[in-house]
Design a protein that fits this description.
This protein has 374 residues and is an all-alpha fold. The protein contains 17 helices and no strands.
Length: 374
């Protein structure tokens, strides 16, 4: 997934002769299906065995990447292919991710949830460290089709690795209709104030922090005058920061986690502001570590707290609502893409950073229970 994020964004930017607006559209399309399908994915995760859901999704994602690779090899690929692929990818993730997250508490038990979620985030961060650097160099030396073939192979390899998971039945939701189960999940969130606040916090910070990742080719190509391997290094450095932050969160136990969650958002906002005000590549390499640290505090810790606070029977549906935050990313990516096209990348990211810092300050002042959460 990390390799595909880099490859898709860079290829779109090349195919469109550096059109940041189209880059924003394709990047946003990956998230749009989450708004429609995530709630259904959450119900299925609560009803069915997560292992099979994960494996079916992995097979489909591998075949999708193979199709894109073949399209590039045969010189038939256009940015429309990547747009369609991004939509299909988002649809499959809508079903896979609730199952992935809901299965973790069932593997480790209530006492191990926070640590396990943080370690899971650390494992994903390790992939973030390695994959962009590998993907960027594969893209540079073997072309975008070579990168997509490797992505396809890794997706299919993940199917084999997932077979080692034990069979764990979901708690189930009875014989109610799909819509009734969705309504019950939303009702549970509504009567659980802390769960609701954590989901709202995730929505606000994701909406403002994520667009920079999708618009990174604008900085790499137009501002830094660099190539895909250099973009891979930036993503890898961010992954190192996220890995360090995730391991720290896994180790701290119950220590001031609400405050650290807000601190992660503040670090992200300040780092984005620095990237916009000081547009130098080697400075950005170092700043990406802090962006990763903020990302770990804001995202990994938020995920752990949501899964820990939510009741087991509702975890799939709660996580599906959490995932809808990523479906709202287009509300940040599309305006940021247009602002980058007409005002410049530095201006766009400065605006996002300022809004993010304002949201964090507002939560810090108004949400005492979140601020003092251990």
């Amino acid at each position: 997934m990390q390799m595909q994020m880099l490859s898709r964004a860079y290829l779109v930017y090349e195919l469109t002769d550096g059109n940041a607006a189209i880059l924003g559209v394709v990047s946003a399309a990956n998230a749009l299906p989450l708004l429609v399908l995530a709630l259904f994915g959450g119900v299925i995760a609560d009803r069915l065995e997560g292992k099979r859901i994960i494996q079916i999704s992995q097979v489909a994602l591998g075949l999708l990447a193979l199709f894109i690779g073949l399209s590039i090899t045969t010189n038939t690929a256009t940015w429309y292919h990547l747009l369609g692929g991004a939509i299909a990818h988002g649809a499959l993730v809508s079903f896979m991710m609730p199952a992935r997250q809901a299965i973790i508490p069932r593997l480790v038990g209530q006492q191990g949830i926070s640590n396990a979620m943080s370690l899971n985030a650390a494992g994903m961060s390790a992939a973030t460290v390695m994959a962009p650097a590998i993907g960027g160099n594969v893209y540079a030396f073997f072309g975008p089709d070579g990168a997509y073939y490797m992505i396809s192979g890794l997706f299919l390899l993940s199917v084999i690795l997932t077979t080692f998971l034990p069979h764990i039945d979901a708690k189930g939701t009875g014989r109610a209709s799909m819509m009734s189960d969705i309504k019950a999940g939303l009702s549970y969130i509504g009567r659980s104030p802390l769960v609701a606040v954590l989901l709202i916090t995730a929505m606000g910070t994701t909406l403002l922090a994520m667009p920079f990742r999708f618009l990174m080719p604008v900085f790499v190509v137009d501002i830094y005058n660099r190539g895909p391997d250099d973009m891979g290094l930036l993503l890898a450095m961010m992954g190192i920061g996220t890995l360090i932050g995730s391991l720290f969160i896994a180790a701290i136990g119950q220590w001031h986690r609400g405050f650290l969650l807000l601190a992660g958002g503040a670090i992200t906002g300040l780092t984005l502001l620095s990237l916009a005000l000081f547009p130098f590549y080697y400075l950005a390499v170092g700043l990406m570590v802090f962006l990763g640290l903020g990302d770990a505090g804001r995202r990994a810790l938020n995920q752990a707290l949501v899964m820990e606070v939510a009741e087991d029977a509702y975890r799939g549906r709660v996580w599906s609502v959490f995932m809808m935050n990523f479906g709202l990313v287009p509300l940040g990516v599309l305006p940021a893409g247009l602002a980058s096209e007409y005002l410049g990348g530095e201006v766009a990211i400065t605006i996002l950073a300022g809004l993010l810092l304002f949201i964090v300050a507002l939560l810090l002042i108004t949400q005492k229970r979140l601020r003092e959460l251990n």
